[in-house]
Each structure stands twice: as structure tokens, then as C-alpha cells.
Design brief:
Organism: Flavobacterium macrobrachii
Radius of gyration: 13 Å
Number of strands: 0
Mean pLDDT: 77
Largest sheet: none
Protein name: TIGR03643 family protein
Low-confidence stretches: none
Distance between the termini: 32 Å
Structural class: mainly alpha
Strand content: under 5%
């Protein structure tokens, strides 16, 4: 991840990206849409911000999670979040 991307993110945004990355239902495309970070950028951010053991657990989880990658998702899922989800602070994706 380039330093310019890291410098443009506030601590609150970094926390939100980490939270979204841990969520099983949130695909990398949603993070890209909201923050402009590619999957590789998110992985680099997670590696930098998490303890190594936590990063390893997260990577293993992501590799086995079908909902993190749009190509692996069920074709019936066409949104980034559950339609019953309440408004989340700092979330730029509007409710549908």
C-alpha cells in the first residue's frame, strides 16, 4: 500500500476499513467503492495494522470466505449489505 493512500485516511477510516475487512458479508468491492482501496491495498493495510497472528487468521478466513469476492458469491446477492441492516456511522453506501 502506498504511503499517499495511508496519509489520506483518517484513523476513523482505517478502523472502518478493518471492520469491513473482518465482516464476512462485505466484499472487497464495497471497500473499493467507499474508500478507493483495491484488495491488495486492503491486505497491505491489514498486515500493517494488525498483529501478525491476527493477520494470519484474517487471511485464512478471507481465503475460505465465498462472500468476500464478488466472483465467488451467489448470483442472488446483488448488494453490499443486508437490506435489514441499520445505518452505520461513516458508511457512504446509502440504504436501498
Amino acid at each position: 500500500m502506498s504511503n499517499t493512500i495511508k496519509q489520506n485516511l483518517s484513523d476513523i477510516q482505517i478502523d472502518r476499513i478493518i471492520e469491513m475487512a473482518w465482516e464476512d458479508r462485505t466484499p472487497f468491492d464495497a471497500i473499493k467503492f467507499q474508500f478507493g482501496l483495491s484488495e491488495a491495498d486492503v491486505k497491505a493495510l491489514m498486515k500493517k495494522e494488525l498483529k501478525f497472528s491476527s493477520y494470519k487468521l484474517w487471511r485464512e478466513r478471507v481465503e475460505n470466505c465465498k462472500t468476500k469476492h464478488v466472483a465467488k458469491r451467489d448470483e442472488n446477492i446483488d448488494r453490499f449489505k443486508c437490506n435489514r441492516q441499520r445505518i452505520i456511522s461513516n458508511n457512504k453506501i446509502s440504504k436501498r
